[in-house]
Amino acid sequence: QVQLVESGGGLVQAGGSLRLSCVASGDTSCISAMGWYRQAPGTERELVAAISGGGNAYYADSVKGRFTISRDNAKNTLYLQMNSLKPEDTAVYYCKADCGPWGLGTQVTVSS
After folding, report:
1. What DSSP line would sit under 29-82, residue for residue?
2. Residue 103: which residues within 8 A CB-CB, separation 6 or more?
3. Percent of the chain with pLDDT over 70
4. Quick check: 85 and 12 in contact, CB under 8 A?
């Protein structure tokens, strides 16, 4: 079983930056693709960015040019660098691998 633990969230002013991390542990041999999702109050969870086992990245239109997803396979860690943050980026951010359950999430709050 894979376990995912997110960290790096917090309160930041609009225009600021945060770097999220997600550490995978357990049976990580099943992991290929990984992604970051977010869920704001009253909305459905949405895919923000994903990265394949080969390093190909996908971004939602709302974050293109501002967010960068990356991974360090040696450390079993997924990252999300978030720049030029906007109040509408406020949400709980979750990490997900293509096997195993969701992490508990990390709160990101962007003030205007």
Report:
1. GG---EEEEEE-TTS--EEEEEE-TT--EEE-TTTTTTEEEEEEGGGTEEEEEE
2. 3, 4, 5, 6, 22, 94, 95, 96
3. 100
4. yes
Phi, psi of 87 (to 5 degrees): -55, -30
| Whole-number Å distance between alpha carbons of 80 and 71 | 9
Which residues lie across from 93 on neighbouring strands? 38, 106
Q: DSSP assignment, residue 88?
A: G
Nearest to 108 by CA among 55, 58, 65, 66: 66
Distances (CA, A) of 69 to 25, 35, 59, 64, 111: 19, 8, 8, 11, 23
Cα distance between residue 3 and residue 56, in whole Å: 23
pLDDT tens per residue, range 51-86: 999 999 999 999 999 999 999 999 999 999 999 999
